[in-house]
Protein backbone atom coordinates (compact mmCIF):
# COMPACT_ATOMS: atom_id res chain seq x y z
CA UNK A 1 0.00 0.00 0.00
CA UNK A 2 1.58 3.33 -1.08
CA UNK A 3 1.62 6.41 1.14
CA UNK A 4 -1.31 8.05 -0.66
CA UNK A 5 -3.64 5.09 -0.37
CA UNK A 6 -2.44 4.50 3.17
CA UNK A 7 -3.20 8.12 4.08
CA UNK A 8 -6.67 7.86 2.50
CA UNK A 9 -7.37 4.67 4.41
CA UNK A 10 -6.32 6.32 7.68
CA UNK A 11 -8.44 9.36 6.87
CA UNK A 12 -11.53 7.21 6.30
CA UNK A 13 -10.89 5.19 9.44
CA UNK A 14 -10.41 8.32 11.48
CA UNK A 15 -13.65 9.78 10.13
CA UNK A 16 -15.53 6.58 10.97
CA UNK A 17 -14.10 6.57 14.50
CA UNK A 18 -15.06 10.22 14.97
CA UNK A 19 -18.62 9.58 13.76
CA UNK A 20 -18.90 6.52 16.00
CA UNK A 21 -17.62 8.41 19.04
CA UNK A 22 -19.97 11.29 18.23
CA UNK A 23 -22.98 8.97 18.21
CA UNK A 24 -21.98 7.40 21.53
CA UNK A 25 -21.33 10.76 23.10
CA UNK A 26 -24.62 12.15 21.82
CA UNK A 27 -26.36 9.20 23.44
CA UNK A 28 -24.49 9.81 26.70
CA UNK A 29 -25.37 13.51 26.63
CA UNK A 30 -29.05 12.75 26.04
CA UNK A 31 -28.99 10.37 28.98
CA UNK A 32 -27.21 12.80 31.27
CA UNK A 33 -29.52 15.66 30.34
CA UNK A 34 -32.28 13.88 32.29
CA UNK A 35 -30.29 14.53 35.46
CA UNK A 36 -29.05 18.00 34.53
CA UNK A 37 -30.99 19.60 37.37
CA UNK A 38 -28.85 17.65 39.86
CA UNK A 39 -25.59 18.78 38.29
CA UNK A 40 -23.82 21.72 39.92
CA UNK A 41 -22.78 24.60 37.73
CA UNK A 42 -19.30 23.99 36.27
CA UNK A 43 -16.50 26.16 37.54
CA UNK A 44 -14.79 27.93 34.61
CA UNK A 45 -11.55 28.10 36.57
CA UNK A 46 -11.43 24.32 36.95
CA UNK A 47 -12.03 23.39 33.33
CA UNK A 48 -8.71 21.64 33.08
CA UNK A 49 -9.39 19.70 36.27
CA UNK A 50 -12.84 18.57 35.02
CA UNK A 51 -11.64 17.50 31.61
CA UNK A 52 -11.01 13.90 30.71
CA UNK A 53 -7.51 12.42 30.81
CA UNK A 54 -7.43 12.57 27.02
CA UNK A 55 -8.23 16.28 27.06
CA UNK A 56 -5.58 16.98 29.67
CA UNK A 57 -2.82 15.59 27.50
CA UNK A 58 -0.53 18.21 25.91
CA UNK A 59 -1.29 19.07 22.32
CA UNK A 60 2.12 17.99 21.13
CA UNK A 61 2.26 14.63 22.85
CA UNK A 62 1.83 11.51 20.78
CA UNK A 63 1.76 8.95 23.55
CA UNK A 64 -1.85 7.91 22.76
CA UNK A 65 -1.14 7.08 19.13
CA UNK A 66 0.34 3.99 17.61
CA UNK A 67 4.03 4.32 16.71
CA UNK A 68 4.80 4.59 13.03
CA UNK A 69 1.37 5.93 12.09
CA UNK A 70 1.28 9.22 13.96
CA UNK A 71 3.72 11.00 11.66
CA UNK A 72 1.89 9.90 8.53
CA UNK A 73 -1.50 10.90 9.89
CA UNK A 74 -0.22 14.30 10.97
CA UNK A 75 1.07 14.97 7.49
CA UNK A 76 -2.45 14.68 6.04
CA UNK A 77 -4.28 18.03 5.94
CA UNK A 78 -7.71 18.01 7.63
CA UNK A 79 -10.70 18.78 5.49
CA UNK A 80 -13.47 21.13 6.69
CA UNK A 81 -15.82 18.24 7.53
CA UNK A 82 -13.17 16.33 9.46
CA UNK A 83 -12.04 19.43 11.34
CA UNK A 84 -15.61 20.31 12.36
CA UNK A 85 -16.20 16.72 13.47
CA UNK A 86 -12.97 16.78 15.49
CA UNK A 87 -13.86 20.05 17.23
CA UNK A 88 -17.43 18.86 17.84
CA UNK A 89 -16.17 15.59 19.29
CA UNK A 90 -13.79 17.40 21.64
CA UNK A 91 -16.50 19.81 22.81
CA UNK A 92 -19.00 17.03 23.43
CA UNK A 93 -16.32 15.03 25.28
CA UNK A 94 -15.55 17.91 27.62
CA UNK A 95 -19.22 18.69 28.18
CA UNK A 96 -20.03 15.02 28.73
CA UNK A 97 -17.24 14.53 31.27
CA UNK A 98 -18.31 17.66 33.16
CA UNK A 99 -21.93 16.54 33.33
CA UNK A 100 -20.99 12.98 34.22
CA UNK A 101 -18.75 14.06 37.09
CA UNK A 102 -21.23 16.68 38.20
CA UNK A 103 -24.07 14.13 38.13
CA UNK A 104 -22.28 11.50 40.21
CA UNK A 105 -20.62 14.14 42.37
CA UNK A 106 -23.84 15.69 43.67
CA UNK A 107 -24.82 14.85 47.23
CA UNK A 108 -28.33 13.73 46.29
CA UNK A 109 -27.04 11.18 43.79
CA UNK A 110 -24.44 9.90 46.25
CA UNK A 111 -27.13 9.44 48.89
CA UNK A 112 -29.36 7.73 46.34
CA UNK A 113 -26.59 5.34 45.30
CA UNK A 114 -25.85 4.64 48.96
CA UNK A 115 -29.37 3.97 50.25
CA UNK A 116 -31.30 2.79 47.19
CA UNK A 117 -29.67 -0.66 46.70
CA UNK A 118 -30.41 -1.86 50.27
CA UNK A 119 -33.99 -0.60 49.99
CA UNK A 120 -34.47 -2.35 46.65
CA UNK A 121 -32.97 -5.52 48.09
CA UNK A 122 -35.35 -5.51 51.05
CA UNK A 123 -38.31 -4.70 48.80
CA UNK A 124 -37.38 -7.56 46.50
CA UNK A 125 -36.92 -10.05 49.34
CA UNK A 126 -40.03 -9.20 51.35
CA UNK A 127 -42.49 -7.89 48.72
CA UNK A 128 -41.66 -8.86 45.16
CA UNK A 129 -40.38 -12.37 45.80
CA UNK A 130 -43.31 -13.45 48.06
CA UNK A 131 -45.79 -12.24 45.43
CA UNK A 132 -44.00 -14.19 42.70
CA UNK A 133 -43.76 -17.25 44.95
CA UNK A 134 -47.47 -17.06 45.83
CA UNK A 135 -48.36 -16.80 42.16
CA UNK A 136 -46.31 -19.95 41.53
CA UNK A 137 -47.90 -21.94 44.37
CA UNK A 138 -51.42 -20.90 43.36
CA UNK A 139 -51.28 -23.33 40.42
CA UNK A 140 -50.64 -26.33 42.70
CA UNK A 141 -52.63 -28.38 45.18
CA UNK A 142 -50.08 -28.10 47.98
CA UNK A 143 -50.27 -28.44 51.75
CA UNK A 144 -46.98 -26.68 52.49
CA UNK A 145 -44.84 -29.78 53.06
CA UNK A 146 -42.18 -30.80 50.59
CA UNK A 147 -42.05 -29.49 47.07
CA UNK A 148 -45.32 -28.75 45.25
CA UNK A 149 -45.92 -31.46 42.65
CA UNK A 150 -49.65 -31.68 41.84
CA UNK A 151 -50.33 -29.14 39.09
CA UNK A 152 -54.02 -28.11 38.93
CA UNK A 153 -53.73 -24.98 36.73
CA UNK A 154 -56.49 -22.44 37.54
CA UNK A 155 -58.59 -24.70 39.75
CA UNK A 156 -57.70 -22.80 42.92
CA UNK A 157 -58.81 -19.52 41.36
CA UNK A 158 -62.09 -21.12 40.26
CA UNK A 159 -62.72 -22.27 43.84
CA UNK A 160 -62.04 -18.80 45.18
CA UNK A 161 -64.38 -17.09 42.72
CA UNK A 162 -67.15 -19.64 43.37
CA UNK A 163 -67.00 -19.36 47.16
CA UNK A 164 -69.78 -17.13 48.61
CA UNK A 165 -67.78 -16.61 51.82
CA UNK A 166 -65.08 -14.88 49.77
CA UNK A 167 -67.59 -12.37 48.40
CA UNK A 168 -69.04 -11.82 51.86
CA UNK A 169 -65.55 -11.08 53.17
CA UNK A 170 -65.08 -8.53 50.39
CA UNK A 171 -68.41 -6.99 51.37
CA UNK A 172 -67.16 -6.69 54.95
CA UNK A 173 -64.04 -4.92 53.66
CA UNK A 174 -66.25 -2.52 51.71
CA UNK A 175 -68.35 -1.94 54.83
CA UNK A 176 -65.22 -1.13 56.84
CA UNK A 177 -64.10 1.32 54.14
CA UNK A 178 -67.48 3.10 54.15
CA UNK A 179 -67.61 3.35 57.95
CA UNK A 180 -64.03 4.62 58.07
CA UNK A 181 -64.59 7.17 55.30
CA UNK A 182 -67.98 8.54 56.38
CA UNK A 183 -67.90 8.15 60.17
CA UNK A 184 -64.35 7.76 61.45
CA UNK A 185 -62.61 10.40 59.32
CA UNK A 186 -65.26 13.17 59.74
CA UNK A 187 -65.38 12.62 63.51
CA UNK A 188 -61.59 12.73 63.69
CA UNK A 189 -61.57 15.98 61.71
CA UNK A 190 -64.19 17.59 63.93
CA UNK A 191 -62.39 16.61 67.12
CA UNK A 192 -59.02 17.73 65.73
CA UNK A 193 -60.42 21.21 65.06
CA UNK A 194 -61.56 21.42 68.69
CA UNK A 195 -58.33 20.28 70.37
CA UNK A 196 -55.69 21.49 67.91
CA UNK A 197 -54.52 24.37 70.10
CA UNK A 198 -51.48 24.07 72.36
CA UNK A 199 -53.22 24.32 75.71
CA UNK A 200 -52.61 21.69 78.38
CA UNK A 201 -56.15 20.38 78.28
CA UNK A 202 -55.93 19.87 74.51
CA UNK A 203 -52.66 18.00 74.88
CA UNK A 204 -54.23 15.71 77.50
CA UNK A 205 -57.27 15.01 75.32
CA UNK A 206 -55.08 14.29 72.30
CA UNK A 207 -53.08 11.78 74.34
CA UNK A 208 -56.27 10.07 75.57
CA UNK A 209 -57.75 9.73 72.09
CA UNK A 210 -54.45 8.59 70.60
CA UNK A 211 -53.89 5.90 73.25
CA UNK A 212 -55.99 3.15 71.54
CA UNK A 213 -53.85 3.42 68.42
CA UNK A 214 -50.74 2.61 70.47
CA UNK A 215 -52.26 -0.69 71.61
CA UNK A 216 -51.58 -3.72 69.48
CA UNK A 217 -54.45 -5.05 67.40
CA UNK A 218 -54.45 -8.38 69.22
CA UNK A 219 -54.55 -6.62 72.60
CA UNK A 220 -57.38 -4.34 71.47
CA UNK A 221 -59.36 -7.29 70.13
CA UNK A 222 -58.99 -9.28 73.36
CA UNK A 223 -59.98 -6.28 75.50
CA UNK A 224 -63.16 -5.74 73.56
CA UNK A 225 -63.89 -9.46 73.45
CA UNK A 226 -63.92 -9.41 77.24
CA UNK A 227 -66.13 -6.29 77.28
CA UNK A 228 -68.66 -7.85 74.89
CA UNK A 229 -68.91 -11.08 76.88
CA UNK A 230 -72.51 -11.78 77.86
CA UNK A 231 -71.66 -13.34 81.23
CA UNK A 232 -69.06 -11.13 82.90
CA UNK A 233 -68.29 -8.33 80.42
CA UNK A 234 -69.13 -4.65 80.62
CA UNK A 235 -72.15 -5.15 78.37
CA UNK A 236 -73.51 -7.81 80.74
CA UNK A 237 -73.04 -5.51 83.75
CA UNK A 238 -74.89 -2.64 82.08
CA UNK A 239 -77.79 -4.87 81.10
CA UNK A 240 -78.04 -6.24 84.65
CA UNK A 241 -78.33 -2.70 85.99
CA UNK A 242 -81.52 -2.34 84.01
CA UNK A 243 -82.73 -5.79 84.98
CA UNK A 244 -82.38 -7.30 81.54
CA UNK A 245 -80.54 -10.29 80.21
CA UNK A 246 -77.39 -9.41 78.26
CA UNK A 247 -77.28 -10.57 74.64
CA UNK A 248 -74.44 -12.62 73.26
CA UNK A 249 -73.11 -9.85 71.05
CA UNK A 250 -70.31 -11.79 69.39
CA UNK A 251 -72.52 -14.85 68.84
CA UNK A 252 -75.13 -13.02 66.74
CA UNK A 253 -74.32 -12.24 63.12
CA UNK A 254 -75.67 -8.69 62.90
CA UNK A 255 -74.46 -7.67 66.35
CA UNK A 256 -71.02 -9.18 65.77
CA UNK A 257 -70.51 -7.11 62.61
CA UNK A 258 -71.62 -3.91 64.35
CA UNK A 259 -69.36 -4.67 67.32
CA UNK A 260 -66.41 -5.22 64.99
CA UNK A 261 -67.00 -1.90 63.21
CA UNK A 262 -67.18 -0.09 66.55
CA UNK A 263 -63.86 -1.55 67.65
CA UNK A 264 -62.18 -0.58 64.35
CA UNK A 265 -63.42 3.02 64.65
CA UNK A 266 -62.24 3.17 68.28
CA UNK A 267 -58.85 1.66 67.45
CA UNK A 268 -57.84 3.93 64.55
CA UNK A 269 -59.72 7.10 65.43
CA UNK A 270 -56.70 8.60 67.20
CA UNK A 271 -54.42 8.09 64.20
CA UNK A 272 -56.65 10.12 61.89
CA UNK A 273 -57.16 12.73 64.60
CA UNK A 274 -53.37 13.14 64.90
CA UNK A 275 -53.12 13.66 61.13
CA UNK A 276 -55.74 16.41 61.21
CA UNK A 277 -54.20 18.05 64.29
CA UNK A 278 -50.86 18.22 62.49
CA UNK A 279 -52.54 19.67 59.41
CA UNK A 280 -54.41 22.27 61.47
CA UNK A 281 -51.28 23.33 63.34
CA UNK A 282 -49.48 23.68 60.01
CA UNK A 283 -51.75 26.56 58.99
CA UNK A 284 -50.07 29.87 59.71
CA UNK A 285 -51.57 32.16 62.33
CA UNK A 286 -51.13 35.15 60.02
CA UNK A 287 -53.75 33.73 57.65
CA UNK A 288 -56.27 33.32 60.46
CA UNK A 289 -55.45 36.75 61.87
CA UNK A 290 -56.03 38.31 58.45
CA UNK A 291 -59.43 36.62 58.22
CA UNK A 292 -60.30 37.82 61.70
CA UNK A 293 -59.34 41.38 60.81
CA UNK A 294 -61.55 41.17 57.73
CA UNK A 295 -64.50 40.38 59.99
CA UNK A 296 -64.83 36.64 59.35
CA UNK A 297 -66.47 34.63 62.08
CA UNK A 298 -64.96 31.45 63.47
CA UNK A 299 -67.30 29.27 61.42
CA UNK A 300 -66.54 31.24 58.24
CA UNK A 301 -62.81 30.98 58.91
CA UNK A 302 -63.10 27.23 59.42
CA UNK A 303 -65.29 26.64 56.37
CA UNK A 304 -63.55 28.94 53.89
CA UNK A 305 -59.92 28.86 55.03
CA UNK A 306 -59.10 25.98 57.38
CA UNK A 307 -60.97 23.16 55.65
CA UNK A 308 -59.72 23.99 52.11
CA UNK A 309 -56.15 24.19 53.39
CA UNK A 310 -56.54 20.79 55.07
CA UNK A 311 -57.84 19.08 51.95
CA UNK A 312 -54.56 17.27 51.27
CA UNK A 313 -54.53 15.92 54.82
CA UNK A 314 -58.09 14.65 54.34
CA UNK A 315 -57.07 12.90 51.13
CA UNK A 316 -54.15 11.26 52.94
CA UNK A 317 -56.41 10.19 55.80
CA UNK A 318 -58.90 8.68 53.37
CA UNK A 319 -56.08 6.81 51.63
CA UNK A 320 -54.92 5.30 54.93
CA UNK A 321 -58.52 4.35 55.73
CA UNK A 322 -58.91 2.44 52.48
CA UNK A 323 -55.52 0.78 52.79
CA UNK A 324 -56.07 -0.21 56.41
CA UNK A 325 -59.55 -1.54 55.67
CA UNK A 326 -58.21 -3.82 52.96
CA UNK A 327 -55.56 -5.13 55.39
CA UNK A 328 -57.84 -5.70 58.40
CA UNK A 329 -56.84 -9.01 59.94
CA UNK A 330 -55.41 -9.27 63.46
CA UNK A 331 -58.18 -7.39 65.25
CA UNK A 332 -60.80 -9.60 63.55
CA UNK A 333 -59.01 -12.81 64.50
CA UNK A 334 -58.69 -11.70 68.13
CA UNK A 335 -62.26 -10.43 68.44
CA UNK A 336 -64.47 -12.86 66.49
CA UNK A 337 -62.13 -15.17 64.54
CA UNK A 338 -64.44 -14.64 61.59
CA UNK A 339 -67.54 -15.91 63.37
CA UNK A 340 -70.30 -16.49 63.90
CA UNK A 341 -70.83 -18.63 60.79
CA UNK A 342 -67.98 -16.86 58.92
CA UNK A 343 -69.99 -13.62 58.92
CA UNK A 344 -67.23 -11.25 60.08
CA UNK A 345 -64.35 -12.41 57.92
CA UNK A 346 -62.33 -9.83 56.03
CA UNK A 347 -60.52 -10.84 52.88
CA UNK A 348 -57.23 -11.35 54.73
CA UNK A 349 -58.76 -13.31 57.62
CA UNK A 350 -60.57 -15.44 55.02
CA UNK A 351 -57.18 -16.17 53.44
CA UNK A 352 -55.71 -17.11 56.81
CA UNK A 353 -58.62 -19.28 57.94
CA UNK A 354 -59.31 -21.18 54.72
CA UNK A 355 -55.79 -21.22 53.33
CA UNK A 356 -52.97 -21.17 55.88
CA UNK A 357 -54.83 -22.46 58.95
CA UNK A 358 -56.21 -25.48 57.08
CA UNK A 359 -52.91 -26.23 55.34
CA UNK A 360 -54.25 -25.40 51.88
CA UNK A 361 -51.29 -23.32 50.80
CA UNK A 362 -52.10 -23.45 47.09
CA UNK A 363 -55.66 -22.27 47.72
CA UNK A 364 -54.44 -19.56 50.09
CA UNK A 365 -51.90 -18.40 47.51
CA UNK A 366 -54.69 -18.08 44.95
CA UNK A 367 -56.65 -15.94 47.44
CA UNK A 368 -53.57 -13.78 48.01
CA UNK A 369 -52.99 -13.24 44.30
CA UNK A 370 -56.66 -12.33 43.83
CA UNK A 371 -56.50 -9.84 46.71
CA UNK A 372 -53.29 -8.37 45.31
CA UNK A 373 -54.99 -7.73 41.97
CA UNK A 374 -58.03 -6.21 43.72
CA UNK A 375 -55.84 -3.89 45.82
CA UNK A 376 -53.91 -2.74 42.76
CA UNK A 377 -57.16 -2.01 40.91
CA UNK A 378 -58.56 -0.09 43.88
CA UNK A 379 -55.42 2.02 44.19
CA UNK A 380 -55.34 2.74 40.44
CA UNK A 381 -59.00 3.82 40.47
CA UNK A 382 -58.41 5.96 43.56
CA UNK A 383 -55.41 7.65 41.96
CA UNK A 384 -57.23 8.33 38.70
CA UNK A 385 -60.19 9.84 40.51
CA UNK A 386 -57.83 12.01 42.52
CA UNK A 387 -55.92 13.15 39.43
CA UNK A 388 -59.16 13.87 37.59
CA UNK A 389 -60.32 16.02 40.49
CA UNK A 390 -57.02 17.92 40.49
CA UNK A 391 -57.30 18.55 36.76
CA UNK A 392 -60.87 19.78 37.20
CA UNK A 393 -59.68 22.34 39.73
Radius of gyration: 34 Å
CATH superfamily grouping of the largest domain: MetI-like
Largest sheet: none
The CATH architecture designation of the largest domain is Orthogonal Bundle
The general outline is globular
Q: Give the topology string: H per helix, E per strand.
A: HHHHHHHHHHHHHHHHHH
Number of helices: 18
The residue-averaged pLDDT reads 79
How would you name the oligomeric state of the polypeptide chains in this document?
A: single chain
**Beta-strand segment tally:** 0
CATH-assigned fold name of the largest domain: MetI-like fold
* CATH class category of the largest domain: Mainly Alpha
Supply the number of structural domains.
Answer: 2
| Cα distance spanning the termini | 75 Å
Enumerate the spans where pLDDT stays under 50 for 5 or more consecutive residues: 2-28, 37-75
* Percentage of residues in helical conformation: over 70%
Instruction: Please state roughly what percent of the residues sit in beta strands, choosing from under 5%, 5-15%, 15-25%, 25-35%, 35-45% or over 45%.
Output: under 5%
- SS-based structural class? mainly alpha
Secondary structure layout plus pairing:
Blueprint: H1 3-33, H2 47-50, H3 53-56, H4 70-75, H5 80-105, H6 107-137, H7 155-161, H8 164-194, H9 200-214, H10 217-228, H11 234-241, H12 253-281, H13 285-293, H14 298-309, H15 311-326, H16 330-335, H17 347-356, H18 361-392
Helix pairs in contact: 1-5, 6-18, 7-18, 8-12, 8-15, 8-17, 9-12, 13-14, 17-18
Structure description:
By secondary structure, the chain is mainly α. It has two domains: 103 residues, no CATH class; 238 residues, MetI-like (MetI-like fold). It has 18 helices and no strands. The longest helix has 32 residues. It is globular, with a radius of gyration of 34 Å.
Amino acid sequence: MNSKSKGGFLFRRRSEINLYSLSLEHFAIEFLSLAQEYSPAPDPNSEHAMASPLDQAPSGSNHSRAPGIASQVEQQPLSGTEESQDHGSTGIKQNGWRRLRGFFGSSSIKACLLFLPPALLLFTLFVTWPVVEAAYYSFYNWNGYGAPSKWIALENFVRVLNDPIFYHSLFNNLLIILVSAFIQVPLALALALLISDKSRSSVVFRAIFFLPYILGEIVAGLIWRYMYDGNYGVVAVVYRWFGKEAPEVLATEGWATAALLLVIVWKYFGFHMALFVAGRQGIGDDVLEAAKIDGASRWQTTRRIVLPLMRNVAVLSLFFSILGSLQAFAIIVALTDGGPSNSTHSAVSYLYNFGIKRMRVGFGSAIGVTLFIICVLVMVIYKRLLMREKEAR
